[in-house]
Automatic annotation (TrEMBL):
Pathway: Amino-acid biosynthesis; L-methionine biosynthesis via de novo pathway; One-carbon metabolism; tetrahydrofolate interconversion. Its cofactor is FAD. This is Methylenetetrahydrofolate reductase. It comes from Clostridium ganghwense. Gene3D superfamilies: 3.20.20.220.
Length: 299
């Protein structure tokens, strides 16, 4: 099923994101993660795509295919393009089709910092919008895209970022997933700007439960999201007590999600970090609220 059709049937949509294990040898661990996430009845599960264009040992297709064909859960396969040629993208689109994967999150991807990295010359795809247009031509896929409530870290202004977003949406993007944020006001301000620009496709809020100080420092340094004073206090206070930080991180994410749901957000995308226990606790915390909003997810 196309994810855009899930949004037309019911809202809010609840989805999870997982990533292929870094070592091919530990691929079995991801199947245990999916086993644990499946009973939570997410609307879909997304699978990230290895950064740096390393497609040779990329497990995204294999994992997305298992989600879709073994667990009968809709799968969203991420796909980056900055390092790829058109024929590499054709190859992977063909694999998606063969594996019954109908939904793609079209991404530019981070630019490899290794000065020896060999990009296609000239680039076949410079921005995610180029990939959206390319996939759209085949007419086989529902296409998701990213958006950045605190603006993309490389963009000088929110206005410019929004113009680029509008172009990506007009080029055939069917729904958006936001970058993670810890202060809902950024999301609400962003949403009022996208409304003014007549960006009318569903926007899911990306929420990351923080259970580890190092993890969040690394991620925030990459994406530039602000951490409110209130949350910094929590992280600093419990950084050396993993159980306490986990409880606090889950409570913080739950509070964010309840506020977003109460404000009418169309979807919540939980960055699970392959930790099903955390996803399970959050789903349990919000289940009656989602039920009240006319959905029923199991716990
Ligand atoms: P784009 O939409 O292309 O935007 C990137 C920058 O280019 C922005 O500053 C934008 O304003 C600017 N821009 C866009 N179009 C134009 C234009 N026509 N002219 C000039 N400037 C333009 N990375 C991975 O490697 N693998 C993943 O699986 C992955 N999954 C992600 C999932 C989500 C939900 C998010 C939010 C990010 C994910 N990323 C992933 C990270 C992402 O690849 C990076 O944030 C990357 O830096 C930008 O990718 P994008 O698709 O958002 O880029």
């Amino acid at each position: 099923m196309y994810i855009k059709d899930i949004f037309s049937k019911r809202k809010p949509v609840i989805s999870f994101e997982i990533f292929p294990p870094r070592k091919a040898s530990s691929i079995d661990t991801i199947y245990r993660t999916i086993d644990a996430l499946a009973p939570l009845n997410p609307d879909y599960i997304s699978v990230t795509y290895g950064a740096g264009g390393n497609t040779a040992d990329n497990k995204t297709v294999e994992i997305a295919s298992i989600i879709k064909n073994k667990y009968n859960i809709e799968a969203l396969a991420h796909l980056t393009c900055i390092t790829s040629t058109k024929s590499e993208i054709d190859n992977i689109l063909e694999k998606f089709k063969k594996n019954n994967i109908n939904n793609i999150l079209a991404l530019r991807g981070d630019i490899p910092q290794d000065s020896n990295f060999k990009f296609p010359n000239p680039l076949h795809f410079e921005h995610a919008v180029d990939l959206v247009k390319y996939i759209q031509k085949s007419n086989n896929f529902c296409i998701g895209g990213t958006c950045y409530p605190e603006r993309h870290i490389e963009c000088d202004s929110m206005e410019e970022d929004l113009i680029n977003l509008k172009d990506k949406v007009n080029s055939g993007t069917n729904f958006l997933i936001s970058q993670l944020f810890f202060d809902n006001n950024f999301f609400y301000n962003f949403k009022s700007k996208t409304d003014k620009l007549n960006i009318n496709i569903p926007i899911e809020a990306g929420i990351m439960p923080v259970i580890n100080k190092k993890q969040i420092e690394r991620i925030v340094s990459l994406c530039g999201s602000n951490i409110p004073e209130k949350f910094i206090k929590i992280i600093d206070r419990y950084e050396n007590n993993p159980e306490a930080l986990k409880d606090a991180g889950i409570a913080y994410a739950t509070e964010q999600i309840i506020d977003l749901l109460s404000s009418g957000v169309e979807g919540i995308h939980i960055y699970t970090m392959n930790n099903p226990e955390v996803a399970k606790r959050i789903v349990r915390n919000i289940s009656s609220i989602v039920y009240a909003l006319n959905r029923n997810i199991a716990i």
